[in-house]
Amino acid sequence: MLSLRWLTKRPVKRLLSSFIVDNMSEASKKLKINNSRKWVKRFIYILVIVTLFAWSYSPIKKRMVQRRQIERLSNQLASEKIENKKLKMELELLRSDNEYIENIAREKLGMIKAGEDGYVVIEEDEEKGVEDEGEDASETESDGEGWWQRILSIFRRR
Question: CB-hemisphere CA count at 13 Å for 51?
């Protein structure tokens, strides 16, 4: 029979202590493994989230760019429609209204009716440009007829 003395001897204590230490080291290894598994799982989750974000970022960005482009083109279309209406109205006036044609000829082309005197207003910048031309400008002025008078004489002949 085993005596109580035998249990209290040192080798038993060593055996028990080594058993406890071995179990503790196995437990700590299991904890370390579990902790490392948790970190691996977390890393995988983060990696999946980052990957999904990276894949979805490009289409989201393209969609935002396309929305801006659609808005810009819609605004351009609206302005082009307004311009088109103005041009259609002007075309209708040109087809039907002779007075409108006469006003356009007078304002934009500088035309005058037979027997009318035409006047051309020369701005300061144009006067300086004529003076800077040198000999050509002085020759036309010495003739008594300016360049603009020659142009008006062309229209008067018609």
Answer: 6
